[in-house]
């Protein structure tokens, strides 16, 4: 997926407004948070004025009367205490809003990922997707927690400070207005430069996650083929690029954040003191006014500094938000169903009519595929690697949209069935079965509440899995680690068979389901497979021809076309590609037996 090097101002505004749209369901909490924010801001504005009153009305003229000073001090301390309490609740509310929003955003992203077509996952590294769901949404959370609150509070504070300045001295307040264009220029320059650098930084972090995910999933191969050094080098290169991108961000932060703002603050301070110095020769200047003005000036630049510091978080959030929304707007969805009427799969008759299919839109991997699998029949697909066997399964399961031809089930297009109906009535067993983290029972039932424990155990017995499951430490409650790595290939496959049988599908799809099973285990489940196929339409991909000799129809594929079709005996009699494959496999077996003897 192509990444932009920089977001335009229009794109940044679009991302911001889209992020803010997530606040709509939380208007009540946001209102409470803003009221608390306004009250704490008022406290910040009032406190320096109280000190000014103390200096000019009591300290300078030496009117140190106990009662008025006691009242003034009590008001000052009371405001400080109330401000601290309100600040606590304000921070809690903003955190609550942020967590609600990120919770919903992550659900939206996760739901979107599940609705994407397999074609999207073919071209996008898993680590990159994980980075968007975790790291990028976390960056967005920081914006809602600190950036928005800081910007709004700073806006209120700056407005209040300017009002207070004008109350104290109109001329000096007008003089201070000239620093605003300078501040806006620095902020705008920082925003433009940092946008480019943060986009690069997020992309490098995504690449780091992708490389890490790839390394973890392929660790056995990495260690077997001694690829550790190469992977360390590749990871190190990406890490160095991430470091370089981070250093660019640090340099721009170091130049345009606090140092630049502090320089403008010094300039403003010199301007204010010079003004008081010049005017003091013509009339008296109150010390309290000087204190209040200097204090307000200091308080004016503190929120500006806070805003500049938060700009870095804001830019990270906007860049992260653009990446998240890019995923949410992804149009590579799973093929849609065009349900026209309420129909169900009852018999399981499958018809391919002149089906052609291409993954990339340029080269057909299936060409004019036509065959019929009647209810209860077994159709086997054989052929060399890349001949199109798995592609037939992919389009039949409607994982991918096919361009030409038609696929019918019970006389209806597969596009007219609901997706739940297709998935419920078609059972798929892959060559490398996937087991979820949990228990053996969870992996067979897949949290189907309609399936009782008795039915689940019957399914396990049906495929000869019950005997080995009972021998486990906790039986059906035995813990399954990630991908079921503590089980043998045969055990994982048996659990996958039990899972499929428990769902009681009308159509059974076996994608080289016995390829990873040892001979002894294969013999155990061949009887079960024969029982499974009774009353079900079965489409079976097989490399070992011995496993499909009893198939009602065998289709021999070559370069995406059906070149031969018939029963085992009919194909042997043809003396074509199937015959050659059969001789090769039997020859290999004979050589192996000779070597053993």
Verbal overview:
With 597 residues, this protein is of the alpha/beta class. The protein is 64% helix and 11% strand. It contains 20 helices and twelve strands. Strands 6-9-10-3-11-12 form a six-stranded mixed beta sheet, sandwiched between helices. β1 (350-358) and β2 form a beta hairpin. It is elongated. The model is unreliable at 589-593 (pLDDT under 50).
Notable features of this structure?
alpha/beta, Rossmann fold, ABC transporter transmembrane region fold, single chain, four-stranded antiparallel β-sheet, 2 domains, 597 residues, 64% helix, elongated
Query: Please, how many helices?
Result: 20
CATH topology of the largest domain: ABC transporter transmembrane region fold
Q: What is the CATH superfamily label of the largest domain?
A: ABC transporter type 1, transmembrane domain
> N-to-C terminal Cα separation, in Å?
56 Å
The radius of gyration is 36 Å
Biggest sheet descriptor: 6 strands, mixed
The count of strands amounts to 12
Low-confidence stretches: 589-593
Number of domains: 2
Share of residues in strands: 5-15%
Tell me the strand order in the biggest sheet.
6-9-10-3-11-12
Described by the principal axes of the CA atoms, the overall outline is: elongated
CATH class of the largest domain: Mainly Alpha
Mean pLDDT across residues: 83
Structural class call reads alpha/beta
Question: From the 3D coordinates, which CATH architecture of the largest domain would you assign?
Answer: Up-down Bundle
Helix content: 55-70%
